[in-house]
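Board notes, transcribed. Complex of a protein with 2-acetamido-2-deoxy-beta-D-glucopyranose.
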Amino acid sequence: MSCIFCHIRSISENFFPSLSKLTNFQFSILLMSTVILYSLFSLYSLQRTWGNIINFESKHIIIYSNFPIIMQAIAKFAVQNGSNVTLISKNQTQLIQSKKFLLSYIAHENQIISTFLLDPQNFSQIQKSILDSIKTSGLPFLLFINSEENIDGKFQNQKISDFESQMNSNFFAIVNIIKAILPQMISFGLNKKKRSEKPKIILINSQTNSFTFNDSSSFCASKYAIKGLCDCLRNEFKAFNIDLHLFSTKKLSKFSSDQKIQQSKQESLQKRFIEAEKIWIISKKSYFN
Ligand SMILES: *[C@@H]1O[C@H](CO)[C@@H](O)[C@H](O)[C@H]1NC(C)=O
Ligand SMILES: *[C@@H]1O[C@H](CO)[C@@H](O)[C@H](O)[C@H]1NC(C)=O
Ligand SMILES: *[C@@H]1O[C@H](CO)[C@@H](O)[C@H](O)[C@H]1NC(C)=O
Ligand SMILES: *[C@@H]1O[C@H](CO)[C@@H](O)[C@H](O)[C@H]1NC(C)=O
Ligand SMILES: *[C@@H]1O[C@H](CO)[C@@H](O)[C@H](O)[C@H]1NC(C)=O
């Protein structure tokens, strides 16, 4: 031990000759204080990195989800943080309810919450809505997408149209929206080098993109397709400074079947809301630092 101490001492004296005037006791106090100060500083920088350093103020965030609860939980934080938020959905009631819910979280006067009712299969309509939203709210910094339809059934009993319908809502809706937003995100991403400043696409998908369960061939296949799409796009988008993340959550896989639960509906909605809130918090921690 004392040898390590002598070693540190002699190295320090090489750099700062005046240290040789100190007794061993004084030197060890100085050494300990340095170590403590250094640790405190490291902890502080870690906390800065983990903490809320990304500024969402007046950034434009676009959210697509066919689950009102997920849309609202994610949008709530964006609105609280001063972002301009665009909600897109194929369900008019969902848009009206969500906007009403969000108005009470507005952080400053010139903040905009816009809604677009669209058919996620109609590419030119999506393109137009996104361009319109950019005119009022700025280039898109962040896109959250969550699109999920679940028709359970044995393969031999399912209709071809069941497969088509789930591929349309779980896969093609997402392809359409990403493709429509990409040119605008590229404009935003130019010259952004810091990870926290790069535009991001965050897909919220159930974990069934990597395992299957019985009687869900059409559903699981569409989820695997999304995983494949993300793995390809993630690399392609690096060239444009755009980060793409696939957020797979076990909990979300229950959301669709939750609709079957009749009793304690309010309680299960509350649970979903809290789970969706966690997605925002986790995304923020892991994708913006
Ligand atoms: C952003 O939202 C978080 C809650 O998620 C809040 O703690 C924080 O103060 C907000 N930041 C701003 C700038 O409003
Ligand atoms: C539209 O959303 C509302 C609530 O947000 C829901 O009650 C209704 O079932 C939805 N309609 C369709 C066709 O999904
Ligand atoms: C797609 O949306 C446009 C409006 O933006 C509409 O004119 C067109 O008929 C739609 N196409 C289909 C196939 O619904
Ligand atoms: C958000 O909307 C307000 C009002 O139109 C605008 O002043 C602000 O610049 C917008 N944010 C961005 C990033 O364009
Ligand atoms: C899935 O189906 C197989 C074949 O019918 C059956 O043996 C198995 O127990 C089922 N698994 C579950 C979890 O129901």
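Residues 160-189 form the longest helix (30 residues). Residues 52, 57, 77, 80-82, 107 surround 2-acetamido-2-deoxy-beta-D-glucopyranose (ligand 1) (CB under 6 Å).
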